[in-house]
Design brief:
- The chain has about 100 residues and is an all-alpha fold.
- The chain contains 2 helices and no strands.
- The radius of gyration is 42 Å and the shape is rod-shaped.
Amino acid sequence: MAVTGDESETGSSGGELLGNDLHTSSSSALCLTLAHPARTPTEDASQKREHRLMKNREAARQCRRKKKEYVKCLENRVAVLENQNQTLMEELKAVKDIYQQKG
């Protein structure tokens, strides 16, 4: 039998696959599947890492914002308490002056 482009060396016609041909086809299909999977473990790990880093950045941003608000609130409270302390000290001095004048 003469070998043409449509026939294999084993004598099978174009549509038939013999045992050896089937093995070769399935292993090449397997290689293609392994070479180009939907997501490799490294891509999956990388994607998880990026997601975790993104969440961490957002959490850090929120933490810094809350800390700024807290510090601002404390600064306002310090200002109010210093003002109140000054007022009370002036009031105490005025009361002391009144008692010293009587005595």
